[in-house]
Amino acid sequence: MSVDFIDSNIFVYLFDETDRTKRETATALVEAAVESGSCVISHQVVHEVLNVITRKLSVPVTTKDARLFFDHVLAPLWHIAPSHELFRRSLQLKAKYSYSFYDSLIVAAALEFGCRRLLTEDLQHGQRIEKLTIVDPFRS
User: How confident is the model at residue 68, as a pLDDT?
Assistant: First the structure.
């Protein structure tokens, strides 16, 4: 079974009260991912999401709720840990595609796990990087 990689921004929309359409799309995507195991995330996504939801939202999530979100959503999807090779590959991608280091790290993690699609709104929709295709799930 081919799995997708979910970027941090998708999870943040679960908590965004300003864009109902994106929140509904993100909710459906994440619920399906957790139920089916059809998506993965990396350590970086865990870091970024927990930082944003506990510190950067207009109404931050409580520590208790962040822990529940981690236990029931992020932890089951987290399959990619940092490694020397992951960082080396991200530096190669950064040089080749001129992405930021953090975007390159996301792409490297998706490639390392063998994902076919990277779900994000932060990169160019439709771009192919090796066997990985960038998909903006909010694009109509």
Answer: 98
Identify the helix (H) or strand (E) that includes residue 13. Answer: none
Q: For residue 80, what are the β-bridge partners?
A: 42
Which secondary-structure segment (H or E) carries 126? Answer: none
- 120 phi/psi in degrees, rounded to 5: -160, 155
> Is the distance from CB of 41 to CB of 5 less than 8 angstroms?
yes
Q: Which residues contact 6 (CB under 8 A, 6 or more apart)?
A: 29, 30, 33, 39, 40, 41, 45, 77, 119, 120
Distance, in Å, from the CA atom of 75 to the CA atom of 68, rounded to the nearest integer, reads 10
pTM above 0.90, yes or no: yes
The residue with tokens 């957790």 is 34
Strand duo 128-129 + 132-135: pairing:
antiparallel
In whole angstroms, what is the distance from residue 94 CA to residue 87 CA? 10
What pLDDT, on a 0 to 100 scale, did the predictor assign at position 2?
80
Query: Judging by DSSP bridges, how do beta strands 117-119 and 39-42 pair with one another?
Result: unpaired
| Mean pLDDT, range 80-96, rounded to an integer | 97
